[in-house]
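Priority: medium. Attachment 1 of 2:
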């Protein structure tokens, strides 16, 4: 390639890039110019076709919990004299910065009454807490931006910047000017307006709930810890019980204690029943004796009995820190059969890292790590795996009254990720995981931080 041809090619690429950047800048300027500030619209004038004032904007009504990616504006609440009237959005000719012009002189002056599913953006969302699902953080809406989209006015973004708050405190002429320095796309937001509505709570979340379900339990725990009381309780109701329980297991002890008290005894008992036994016991120990008894009485009898048994053991012993979630098998069971049983326990995968092989009397023979099950043939038996593992020496199991620091020494020596806890008859009672040992040895560091790290 000649030098002149190379120069021409490079010049053409640079020219194309400048054109693309110019188009992008023009598009951004166009979008920015079409934004309407909800904060600036409130108290703004409403004029008729002749330009005469007929009222003032009180709020913007939107259908927040439908299937649309960007919630459509359905109307405006305006003040006409002493009345608060509702204007259908199709009666609006134009919404500019801080003002509204109508396309008709006809108005329904009956007092506005909120209908099911309607959300008042200024009253219910502006200055309220929101969850930024993409950024995984709790934030607060400093302003909301509307924009035209497919012949509709829709809610497109949330401004969370400090300059916007300052702009709203300034003169009226500043308040209507959008200052989108830090704007979150509405599709990444989970709002908490439902609890604040005056109308019947007959609304349904789809997109935002689906986004929340994609968050890891540790991320959800961070969000729950940052939310206010009402918003925290609402978020929990959006989650499946099992997903909510996973998030609760990741919370700081003090925050979890507060949440259980806020939730009410029935819901708190339900959540504790969904949590892993060792995590539920940790949470119950942080409560008063009367609170513990009240919650246990509301749980299923088998669950309550198991948790009471764990609570009766000292917290700094193997029996007091173990989980009772076990998968057992007999020597003659095939690997394929055991894998099927493990698949049924998938929701408890963080508590199961091995399968205890027992004899017909329930006495422990060996503890088979999941890795060996993964690489074994389906037709192999658990007995064959046990015999193969025997070449590496005897396995270690501990008694319920073994101090946790002694268990830690055994765990390090065996280079395992967990140890079985057995009774005097060698019957498996539970399993002590590495993170549970860390939790027990370093309680002042916050037990659930270690779980997040190890996962």
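Attachment 2 of 2:
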């Amino acid at each position: 390639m000649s030098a002149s041809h190379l120069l021409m090619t490079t010049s053409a690429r640079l020219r194309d890039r400048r054109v693309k950047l110019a188009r992008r800048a023009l598009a951004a300027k166009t979008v920015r110019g079409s934004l309407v500030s909800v904060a600036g619209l409130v108290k703004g004038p409403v004029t008729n076709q002749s330009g005469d004032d007929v009222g003032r904007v009180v709020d913007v009504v939107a259908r927040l919990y439908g299937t649309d990616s960007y919630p459509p504006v359905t109307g405006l609440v305006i003040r006409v004299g002493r009345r608060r009237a509702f204007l259908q959005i199709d009666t609006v000719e134009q919404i500019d910065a801080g003002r509204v012009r109508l396309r008709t002189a006809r108005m329904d002056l009956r007092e506005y009454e909120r209908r099911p599913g309607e959300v008042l953006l200024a009253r219910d969302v502006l200055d309220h807490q929101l969850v930024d699902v993409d950024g995984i953080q709790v934030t607060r809406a400093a302003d909301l931006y509307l924009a035209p989209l497919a012949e509709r006015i829709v809610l497109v973004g949330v401004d969370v910047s400090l300059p916007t708050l300052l702009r709203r405190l300034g003169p009226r002429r500043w308040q209507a000017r959008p200052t989108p320095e830090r704007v979150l796309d509405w599709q990444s937001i989970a709002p908490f307006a439902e609890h604040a509505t005056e109308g019947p709570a007959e609304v349904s979340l789809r997109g935002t709930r689906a986004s929340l379900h994609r968050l890891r339990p540790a991320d959800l725990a961070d969000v729950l810890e940052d939310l206010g009381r009402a918003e925290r309780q609402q978020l929990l109701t959006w989650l499946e019980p099992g997903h909510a329980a996973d998030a609760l297991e990741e919370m700081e002890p003090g925050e979890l204690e507060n949440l259980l008290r806020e939730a009410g005894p029935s819901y708190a008992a339900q959540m504790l029943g969904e949590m892993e036994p060792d995590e539920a016991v940790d949470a119950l120990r942080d409560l008063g004796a009367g609170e513990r008894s009240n919650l246990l009485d509301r749980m299923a009898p088998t669950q309550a009995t198991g948790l009471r048994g764990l609570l009766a053991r000292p917290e700094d012993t193997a029996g007091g820190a173990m989980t009772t979630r076990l998968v057992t098998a007999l020597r003659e069971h095939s690997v394929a059969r055991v894998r099927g049983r493990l698949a049924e326990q998938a929701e408890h995968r963080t508590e199961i890292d091995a399968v205890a092989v027992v004899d017909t009397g329930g006495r422990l023979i060996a503890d088979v790590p999941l890795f060996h099950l993964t690489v074994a043939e389906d037709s192999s038996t658990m007995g064959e795996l046990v015999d193969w593992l025997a070449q590496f020496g005897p396995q270690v199991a501990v008694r319920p009254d073994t101090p946790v620091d002694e268990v830690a020494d055994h765990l390090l020596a065996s280079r395992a990720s967990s140890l079985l806890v057995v009774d005097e008859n060698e019957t498996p009672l539970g399993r002590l995981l590495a993170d549970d040992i860390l939790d027990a040895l370093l309680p002042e560091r916050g037990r659930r931080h270690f779980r997040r790290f190890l996962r």
